[in-house]
Specification:
Helix 2 (about 25-35) runs parallel beside helix 4. The protein has helices at about 10-15, 25-35, 40-55, 55-70, 95-105, 125-130, 140-150, 165-175, 180-195, 215-230, 255-265, 270-285, 295-305, 310-320, 325-330, 355-370, 410-420, and strands at about 85-90, 110-115, 155, 200-205, 235-245, 250, 340-345, 350-355, 380-385, 390-395, 400-405, 420-425, 435-440, 440-445. It folds into three domains: about 5-55, Transferase, Pyrimidine Nucleoside Phosphorylase, Chain A, domain 3, CATH 1.20.970; about 85-330, Pyrimidine Nucleoside Phosphorylase, Chain A, domain 2, CATH 3.40.1030.10; about 335-425, Pyrimidine nucleoside phosphorylase-like, C-terminal domain (Aldehyde Oxidoreductase, domain 3, Alpha-Beta Complex). The longest helix is centred in the middle third of the chain and has 17 residues, at about 215-230. The protein has 17 helices and 14 strands. Strand 4 (about 200-205), helix 10 (about 215-230) and strand 5 form a beta-alpha-beta unit. By secondary structure, it is an alpha+beta fold.
Length: about 450
């Protein structure tokens, strides 16, 4: 293809006017941007135009294809078994990957997992992993293959070899407020996942105040887009719609979530976290041909936690990737934040609603996230919730505990957390956690 046939400004204008770009035009944009022929400011303009006007299904598939082939597609065919990964569209307190990956690998299914960093108010798996002292997520493709062949599991970040266009766009979307776009989210997720060398994929598509898709209908559209792209590329893909109207579990922040993940793998994690974990893990085990049904997969997932094989797998992978296993076996040896302060309830009653987005932003303010793509993340920062929707609370009772090394952030974080948690005199209905399943056959109500 001759790049001179396309003018970047003309393509930005075309998308600004809501017109469809051809596969060749999208390929030009992605290739030229990856090769530094298009600057950030022009790609930002294109992203905003796509965000405001949307993209057609064919454009989303073309964008996925272009980003997928901007680098290498890993070949894991020499490794026995059906390779299965999981991806979440992002939420607050979502540490599921850290728990289910070792569970699924312990059940005999290879899990090649390439993850991203935090986007906006939503935490990232890589930031959580790097809160473990020494843990290396930046590894070569050769090392990536070596680790998964040895352990049935690898937890890695994107490299310049794997979907490099997505890696760059991912960071740019974070700081240009173009995150909540179905085609941009879908193509980002699927280009990265398809590049891993997977055979099948399970998706956790979130909706609610703490999700990028606030309404369940928007999450459904995203799930359908993701499943459609996956099936188009020949990968069996199943998605679940899950509620993010309150944080998952009680821990929000990188190390705090790792610690809660350790509790989960030791069999004493929060019920909401484990409900979704076992469903997603069970579906992965089923797609990986190690269970005849999702229900059997869930039983195997629970057994891997109960018999300790999942925790042993977690310790093995932490050690293999350079992490300090000492803080895994004894989390209290981790260097916690210098400032740990309670947040006291302003009144008595029942926790009615949570603005999970504001809670996620409070965590970012404490140092657990980044406001610009160059900003560092404090692994110790975040907060612990002590109350969830439906819980009773007394005035002055601690409803959260903040962890930070930024003294200047304490006052605002406390105010934000208190403002995000409503306390009423009426009993509150606990949101249904998992609502629907989306697969190649359509949309189905989820019944546990």
């Amino acid at each position: 293809m001759n790049k001179k046939h396309f003018n970047t400004v003309s393509l930005i204008r075309k998308k600004r006017e809501g017109k469809s770009l051809s596969k060749e035009e999208i390929e030009y944009l992605i290739t030229a941007y990856t090769e530094d022929e298009i600057p950030d400011y022009q790609m930002s303009a294109f992203l905003m135009a796509a965000y405001l006007n949307g993209m057609y299904d064919d454009e989303a598939v073309a964008l996925t294809h272009s980003m997928l082939h901007s680098g290498i597609v890993v070949d894991l065919s020499h490794i026995p078994g059906v390779k299965v990964d999981k991806h979440s569209t992002g939420g607050v307190g979502d540490k599921l990957s850290l728990i289910l990956a070792p569970i699924v690998a312990a059940c005999g299914v290879p899990v090649p997992m390439i993850s991203g960093r935090g986007l906006g108010h939503s935490g990232g798996t890589l930031d959580k992993l790097e809160s473990i002292p020494g843990f290396k997520v930046d590894i070569t493709i050769e090392r990536y293959k070596e680790i998964i062949e040895k352990h049935n599991l690898v937890l890695a970040g994107q490299t310049e070899e794997i979907a490099p266009a997505d890696k760059r766009l991912y960071a740019l979307r974070d700081v240009t407020n173009t995150i909540e776009s179905i085609p941009l989210i879908a193509s980002s997720i699927m280009s990265k996942k398809l590049a891993e060398g997977i055979d099948a994929l399970v998706l956790d598509v979130k909706f609610g105040s703490g999700a990028f898709m606030k309404e369940q209908e928007e999450a459904r559209k995203l799930a359908e887009t993701l499943v459609g792209i996956g099936e188009k590329f020949g990968k069996e893909t199943i998605a679940y719609l899950t509620n993010m109207d309150q944080p998952l579990g009680y821990a929000v922040g990188n190390w705090l979530e790792v610690k809660e993940s350790i509790d989960c793998l030791n069999g004493c994690g929060p019920g909401d976290v484990m409900e979704i974990t076992h469903l997603l893990a069970g579906t992965m085990i089923h797609l990986g041909k190690e269970a005849g049904s999702v229900e059997e997969g869930i039983r195997k997932s629970k057994e891997a936690v109960k018999n300790g094989s999942a925790m042993r797998k977690w310790i093995d992978i932490v050690e293999e990737q350079g992490g300090d296993t000492g803080v895994i076996t004894d989390p209290e040896t981790f260097k916690y934040a210098d400032i740990i302060e309670p947040v006291a309830a302003a009144g008595s009653g029942i926790v009615g609603e949570m603005d999970t987005y504001i809670l996620g932003m409070a965590s970012l303010e404490l140092g657990a996230g980044r406001k610009t793509k160059e900003e560092d993340v404090d692994p110790a920062a975040g907060f612990m919730l002590h109350k969830k929707i439906g819980d009773s609370v007394q005035k002055g009772e601690t409803i959260a505990t903040i962890h930070t090394n930024k003294i200047e952030s304490v006052k605002k974080a406390k105010k934000d957390i208190l403002g995000a948690i409503s306390i009423t005199n009426r009993s509150s209905e606990i949101p249904k956690l998992i609502t629907k399943r989306v697969d190649k056959h359509g949309i189905h109500e989820y019944r546990a």
